[in-house]
Every structure is written in C-alpha cells, then in structure tokens.
Specification:
The protein is α/β, with parallel strands linked by helices and 551 residues long. It has 17 helices and 29 strands. Strand 27 and strand 28 form a beta hairpin. It starts with a strand and ends with a helix.
C-alpha cells in the first residue's frame, strides 16, 4: 500500500503505557500492508528537564558562569527523542514486529550548523528505505539532525513535525501527524463548543492557522509539506488503534487531511453558515475586510421569489468578470444558496438580501490578489425589512456634498464593489449638513446620484435622470425607465444641473430596498409636493410589475 510516516508527539509517548498504545497504531498500519517509518518526540516534559539540566550545568562555575555551548546543548537535548525511539522499537519487537531505532545522524538528516534552530538541508534515507523494504519498522528520533561538522543539531521547538514531513518527502510517503486532538477545528474546541472539525484543508489555509497560533502543526512543517506536496493527516493518538474509523482515501477519516488545493474534492462557495447574526464570522484576513476587494448585490424576496433575479445576476457576474473575481459557481448555485438560507430562516416575503462575494482569505495581509488563496468567500445576509413608511409620506432630505462620483478610470461606479469609501464620505457630509443622504455631482458638475440610490426629477411631466456614465446603473433605475417608456411617460437620461433639480416639480430615489422614495428637499429647498402624481403613478406601476414577476 506504499510508504507511510507516522509522527507521535510528547503527550502520545508520555509513558510506557502510551508508548504501547502508539505501538498498536503502528502495528495496525503494518498489518494494512504499509511500509512504516515512525518519528517520535521526547516523552512529555523530558525536553524541559534536559534544558534545565544544561542550564544548571552551565551555572555550576559560580562567578565564572558561562552560557552553555550550543553544540553540547544539542547533544544533551537530542537525547530525549532517542530514548523514546529506543523504547518504541523495544515495544514493537516485543509484539513480534521487526523494528530498529534511528537517530537523526544515522539516517542521516543533514542540517545547517545553527545549533538549537537548525534547518534541514538534505535527507539521505537510502539505508532506511532498504530496511523498510525488508519489513522493518524504522523508528526515527525527531527534532534532530547532523551538521556539516558532524555534530548533533536540533531543529527548535516543534521540530519533530518538521522531521516527519522532511522524512515523508524523502521517502515519497504520506504523513500522519498524531496529536492529543482529533483534527483541525474551525476554532479551539476547548473554548468554543460549536467548533467544527474540518475534514480537508489546503496547505495555505493551514499555514495561516499555524501562523496565527494554532498549536496543531508547527509552521515550518506546513511550509515544507506545501513545497514538497506531502499529504498530511492530523489525527488523535488517543483514539483506539482497533477502531474502524481509520485512514480513508477521501480525507473524511478520523482526522483532518492537509493537502494541495487541487486535491480538494470540491470548492465550497459558502464559506460558513450561521443562521444567527451573532454567530456569523469572517476571517480578518479576508480580502473584503482588508481591502474592499469584492462585489455585492442587494435583492428583495417577495412571496418566495427573488425579484429581477436575472438582472441582478447579469450585473453581479459582469462585475466579477471585469475584476477577474471567480464566483466559484453559476447562477443556479447562487440561487440554491439563497433558497437554503431563506428556508433555514423561514423567510418568504418582505426580505432584503445582501449577497457579498470577496476574493477570499489571504495568506499575508497585503494587497496583491494572488495572496488570496482560499476562496472566494460568499456571504448571504437576509433580514425581514420594509421601507420606513415615514419617508414615503414626508420624503427624504438631500444635501449636495463636495464628494463627487469619479471618472471610470479611477473607480468606475458601475462596479457594485465593497470599496464604498467615497459614498461613505458623501453620507457623512450629508449627515453633518443635517440631511438624510448626500446628492453627488459628476466630475463635470452635473447632478448624478445620491450616496446610496439613483436620483430622478420630474419637470413638466417629464422624468429626468442622469446619463448613467458616472453612477451605478441600478436594476430598479432601469425598471423605472422601462416602465415610463412602456406607459407613455416621457423619460430622459441626460445631463442636468442643480438649477434644474432645485426647480423640479417632483424628485425621487430608486433602489432595490426602497423602490421609489420621494424627495422632500434639496439643500433646504422644498421640491414640489412630496410624492407627487408622477411619482405615485410610477410607484403603482412598479408594484404591479413586482406582483407580475413573483406570481
């Protein structure tokens, strides 16, 4: 069945009884037909004791106290793993298995000369391969190697993981890392009872977890496994060796499989599901959080159907394509995710949805898109909500703000991106002026849109809106234009100034959430009659369209 490297940490070999348990795990894999090598740590607490002895020895000179020679430090500290390796070999022999122990220098595992923190340079395991082919279990002392000067070296804390991965790479073997936990979890299960064990995780994601302090795997070992494409299975040594829940080729076995992204069975589009807003979590390394690197859509659910779903998806997929953002699914996949979320929350109507897609979680907190190596991240937020009735009666107050809608070569407003700082600034400016929203001009000084909605005015029975060159061409905006054209209401997409806006008979905003919201005043100037006859007629036509769409 091929070669297999098993690594056991200090808690797994803490005493003779636990070493016997480890031996049963080894025997099971031998019986399954594997050529087995084992890498062991020192018995729990042994390394600390050895380091303490070294420090005591160095201090014995009194006033002539010197720091311990690191070469001798390594000679002493490396002995802990050698003791464990010898004991396990003895136990395996007592069970009738062929076994021998290997110190790092006997392999040999060649390292740099940096005692206490050596780096592995090469592994010559030809002698070990021959022994394994002869049916021998090779039990190697982890955490150690040999320098160019022929001295014993140690690899630093957690170095046994690195030893195991390096040996597996040299042997062309899979590597099982046995610990005191049964896999990699979404968070620490000892702190969060709802933590979920992950069946598969790619190297990049595991590296991120390790770099953030996860104790399951040592960072260098993950880096090494990623470079040499060594599949890692993280599993518990405390599970019964006789259990049926053992190695499965599909990665759904007793632990967590750490592997190349290409070996993942499928890409999960929805990164996580939380039906309570208090439970929803997204990584601080997510590109959307860090950089606003993502797109979103706002949609409404009426009578179990998403209004104008195709139009929203047209815009969503076009925006993602324009910025090389892989959605990871098709329209049917998005619809399925929306449906499941609505059903889970018993939502059927008057539901507002915020669909958000980012480039995914980054391995480093920097800008380059290539650093987003796990993703995309799709987030669906749904809430029961209706437009505020007061706004429909009194109308909304606008203030013209200094913040303008920019040229397409700076940030094209047609992108419904997470990067909304210009709109946030506009909203703040409006709020400071005592208004509800900011009316934003285009780069030429013509009226464009508000910070959140598309803007329309009515003059002498004609409906005007901006050209659309510098604003988000909203789905509701286009529906209003289409309704006007099909119902003999004159409508124009054109440039117009504040002069014409101030003198309008009516004005209103359009958006997925509010549909059509009347404007009461602009810069303190009253605009005709709030909710005038043309606005009311358009609102009625739009409601009819919604009813027809969701029937």
């Amino acid at each position: 069945m091929g070669r297999l490297v098993l690594k056991f940490g200090g808690t797994s070999v803490a005493d003779i009884e636990r070493i016997r348990n480890v031996a049963r795990h080894v025997a099971r894999e031998v019986a399954a037909g594997h050529e087995v090598a084992v890498v062991v740590s020192a018995m729990s607490g042994t390394t600390d004791q050895l380091v303490g002895w070294v420090n005591l020895a160095a201090a014995s000179g009194g006033a002539n106290r010197v720091s311990a020679d690191m070469k001798e430090h390594d000679a002493v500290v490396a002995s802990g793993e050698q003791v464990t390796a010898g004991l396990l070999a003895i136990v395996l022999q007592s069970m009738g298995l062929k076994a021998r122990s290997w110190a790092g220098w006997q392999v040999p595992m060649l390292t740099s000369d940096s005692h206490g923190a050596a780096r592995i340079l090469d592994v010559d395991c030809s002698a070990m391969i021959a022994a394994m082919a002869d049916g021998q279990v090779a039990v190697m002392a982890g955490f150690q190697g040999i320098s160019s000067q022929g001295r014993v070296t140690t690899l630093g804390r957690g170095g046994s993981d690195t030893s195991a991965v390096a040996l597996a790479a040299a042997l062309g073997a899979k590597c099982d890392i046995y610990t005191d936990v049964d896999g990699v979890y979404t968070t620490d299960p000892r702190i969060e009872p709802k933590a979920r064990k992950i069946d598969r995780i790619c190297y990049e994601e595991m590296l991120e977890l390790a770099s953030q302090g996860a104790k399951v795997l040592q960072t260098r070992s993950v880096e090494l496994s990623m470079v040499y494409k060594v599949p890692l299975q993280v599993r518990s040594s405390f599970e019964s060796p006789e259990s049926d829940n053992q190695n499965r080729a599909d990665g759904t076995g007793p632990g967590t499989l750490v592997c190349d992204e290409e070996d993942m069975v499928e890409q999960q589009v929805v990164s996580g599901i939380a039906y309570s807003r208090d439970e929803a979590k997204v990584s601080v390394y997510d590109s959307g959080f860090m950089l606003g690197d993502g797109m979103w859509e706002g949609m409404r659910l009426y009578n179990g159907k998403w209004a104008f779903f195709d139009e929203h998806m047209d815009r969503f997929f076009a925006s993602c394509k324009a910025v090389s953002l892989d959605v990871g699914t098709d329209r049917a996949g998005i619809l399925e995710a929306l449906t499941k979320t609505a059903q889970a929350n018993s939502m059927t109507t008057d539901v507002h949805c915020r669909l958000m897609l980012t480039r995914g979680t980054k391995v480093k907190p920097f800008q380059h898109p290539s650093l987003s190596r796990s993703g995309p991240t799709l987030v669906i937020i749904m809430e029961h909500s209706k437009p505020v009735s007061e706004l429909q009666s009194r109308g909304i107050r606008l203030a013209t703000v200094p913040q303008v809608r920019g040229l397409p070569m700076s940030q094209d407003a047609k992108f419904n991106s997470h990067s909304k700082l210009n709109c946030v600034i506009a909203c703040l400016q409006a709020e400071q002026a005592g208004a509800d929203e900011g009316l934003m001009l285009d780069p030429h000084g013509f009226v464009n849109t508000t910070n959140a909605c598309n803007f329309f005015i009515v003059r002498k029975g004609e409906v005007w809106t901006s050209t659309g060159d510098y604003c988000m061409n909203g789905v509701t905006r286009q529906k209003v234009i289409d309704l006007c054209r099909s119902n003999d209401i004159p409508v124009f997409a054109k440039n117009f100034s504040l002069y014409e806006a101030y003198g309008a008979d009516e004005a209103f905003l359009t958006g997925t959430f509010g549909a059509q919201t009347p404007v009461a005043e602009i810069d303190g100037k009253k605009i005709g009659t709030s909710g005038g006859p043309v606005t009311q007629r358009i609102r009625g036509l739009y409601k009819q369209l919604i009813d027809q769409t969701v029937m």
